[in-house]
Amino acid sequence: NAGVMQNPRHLVRRRGQEARLRCSPMKGHSHVYWYRQLPEEGLKFMVYLQKENIIDESGMPKERFSAEFPKEGPSILRIQQVVRGDSAAYFCASSPGAGPQETQYFGPGTRLLVL
Amino acid sequence: GDSVTQMEGPVTLSEEAFLTINCTYTATGYPSLFWYVQYPGEGLQLLLKATKADDKGSNKGFEATYRKETTSFHLEKGSVQVSDSAVYFCALTAGGYQKVTFGTGTKLQVIP
């Protein structure tokens, strides 16, 4: 059973460009979470999605950031008009359910560098 | 809101030394507690977890006990190896779904 897949692993963008980060959850997992890790910091929750629904986006900046998890295909985190402060590692996690004892399984991350 | 506080690093130990990384938490209700490990350039791997008071999570020689009375979940290992060098994150989930709240991480460096 393959783990959580993320691509690309590294992404370089110039200020003002768009960044698209993809996450394929583990097989059988319908819950996806995105986290951001700034340099030398812990992970911060951004958004929680189930298939075709955003459940909680309380950690996501109101502007320029959006996320989706369509019925078919991977979850996408989209950052429009990137700025240098968006440079970070973005991690996706998935779980089979949302119960209080479920474990999230993390992907290897996408490291975004904005020049 | 929920929060996790863990000891600041870096922690430098000699091989075979005893390891303790302190972690305390604040949460509503009865959280589940986790330790994740992040090796350089990689994602997070679940190391161990405990879901109720007095539970002990253990894996690869690491262990941590869920202490509700002191709201703590300290990570311990009796004899560290160079290969244990990594960043360790204490974390919790609380409430109806799995939004994970992380501590800031503790970098461990084990020298031969």
Description:
The complex is a heterodimer of chains A (115) and B (112). By secondary structure, chain A is mainly beta. Chain A has no helices and eleven strands. The termini of chain A are far apart. Chain B is mostly beta strands. Chain B is 0% helix and 51% strand. Chain B contains no helices and twelve strands. Chain B is globular, with a radius of gyration of 13 Å. At the A-B interface, strand 4, strand 5, strand 9 and strand 10 of A face strand 5, strand 6 and strand 11 of B.
Short recap of the structure:
The complex is a heterodimer of chains A (115) and B (112). Chain A is mainly beta and 115 residues long.
As a percent range, the share of strand residues of chain A is over 45%
Mean pLDDT of chain A: 92
Distance between the termini of chain B: 41 Å
Cα separation of the termini of chain A? 37 Å
Q: Residue share in helices of chain B?
A: under 10%
Helix/strand layout:
The complex is a heterodimer of chains A (115) and B (112).
Chain A: E1 5-7, E2 10-13, E3 19-24, E4 31-37, E5 43-50, E6 53-56, E7 65-68, E8 75-79, E9 88-95, E10 105-106, E11 110-114
Parallel strand pairs in A: 2-11
Antiparallel strand pairs in A: 1-3, 3-8, 4-5, 4-9, 5-6, 7-8, 9-10, 9-11
Chain B: E1 3-6, E2 11-14, E3 19-21, E4 23-26, E5 32-38, E6 44-50, E7 56-59, E8 62-65, E9 75-77, E10 86-93, E11 100-102, E12 106-111
Parallel strand pairs in B: 2-12
Antiparallel strand pairs in B: 1-4, 3-9, 5-6, 5-10, 7-8, 8-9, 10-11, 10-12
Features:
heterodimer; A: 115 residues; mainly beta; 7-stranded mixed β-sheet; globular; B: 112 residues; 4-stranded antiparallel β-sheet; 0% helix
